[in-house]
Write a structure and sequence with these properties.
single chain, alpha+beta, 3-stranded antiparallel β-sheet, 2 helices, about 30% strand, elongated
């Protein structure tokens, strides 16, 4: 999975900010604004066992990585 995220590149990462957190601050909300960058990729799980279980394998899913 790590290789998929690296292959997507830095431009695929989107910043996400939120206000709630465990770091108190003197701001209006009482908490620091926290943020991180996330990559969201559509993937289809694969493997020998999955192919044996069904004709088409598992459906496409979202992979979220920070």
């Amino acid at each position: 999975m790590k290789s998929l995220v690296i292959a997507a590149g830095k431009l695929a990462a989107r910043p996400v900010r939120w206000l709630e957190g465990s770091r108190p601050d003197g701001g209006r909300s009482g908490h620091k604004r926290m943020y991180s960058r996330f990559v969201a990729l559509r993937v289809r799980p694969a493997g020998r066992e999955i192919r044996k279980a069904g004709r088409h394998g598992l459906p496409v899913r979202w992979l979220l990585a920070e």
